[in-house]
Amino acid sequence: MKRRTLFKSLALILILSVTHSVAKTPKESNMDIQLIITFNIKKDKLPSFMKIMKAVKKDLPQVEGCKEVEVFQRDQDKYTITLIETWESIEKHKTHIKHVIDSGDWNYISSHLTSEPKSHYYQKI
Known about the structure:
The chain is of the alpha+beta class.
């Protein structure tokens, strides 16, 4: 299986596994959702990935349902980047991810990665 196809498949599996693992009550459905996602970047792709992150910081909050995004670079490992995104709902995040995959943008992003990203949804308590 080609690497792009593998990453695309893994992204879909990741999205589905995360979204199906969150049980919501009516009260919770009105709460913001935080998505924490960590990327491991290929050494030769770090400058290009950082340009992507600069665009993400600027553009993602303009996407319907996204309230905020923060980008962090691990102190002791500059090739590990973590995003904390605040969304109005899991559904709005899923819609955004579907667009990223369908547009082909995910193929470009995944070409920078050494492995599939790790992500989970959280709610503030």
